[in-house]
Amino acid sequence: MSRPSRLQRQVLSLYRELLRAGRGKPGAEARVRAEFRQHACLPRSDVLRIEYLYRRGRRQLQLLRSGHATALGAFVRPRGPTEEPRGAGAPGTPPEDGDGPRSPPDGMGSPETSRDGR
């Protein structure tokens, strides 16, 4: 097996630091673990997203280390009994609940041009 890359070492170090900083703060360790597990399936080739998440994690670490953070939680939208979880449809299809981008009303879209270009 090859040696871990520099980015892999940085991510593992961030994970350990976040767990240490979250020790003693309610919900912090579970949230850190859940966040890392959620993004564990990212392909190694998606370096831009991994670097973005790394920078985001660094900012969260600074907040955890500051004396102002006493606990860590997450905002969760409650689901009703008939709602399906997001992503239940085919990949790439827009959500059907109306939260996605909307098309402009009739007459408000871009003007149509005739075939001769006028």
UniProtKB/TrEMBL annotation:
Keywords of the record: Chaperone, Mitochondrion
Q: Where is the Complex 1 LYR protein domain?
A: 9-62
Q: Which InterPro entries does the UniProt entry name for this protein?
A: Complex1_LYR_dom, Complex1_LYR_SDHAF1_LYRM8, SDHAF1
Domain of life here?
Answer: Eukaryota
Cell compartment(s), UniProt: Mitochondrion matrix
Record-linked Pfam families: Complex1_LYR
Q: Where is this region: Disordered?
A: 70-118
Q: Which PANTHER family match?
A: SUCCINATE DEHYDROGENASE ASSEMBLY FACTOR 1, MITOCHONDRIAL (PTHR47046:SF1)
Of which family is this protein a member? Belongs to the complex I LYR family. SDHAF1 subfamily.
Q: What is this protein called?
A: Succinate dehydrogenase assembly factor 1, mitochondrial
High-level lineage: Eukaryota, Metazoa, Chordata, Craniata, Vertebrata
Gene assigned in the entry = LOC101397205
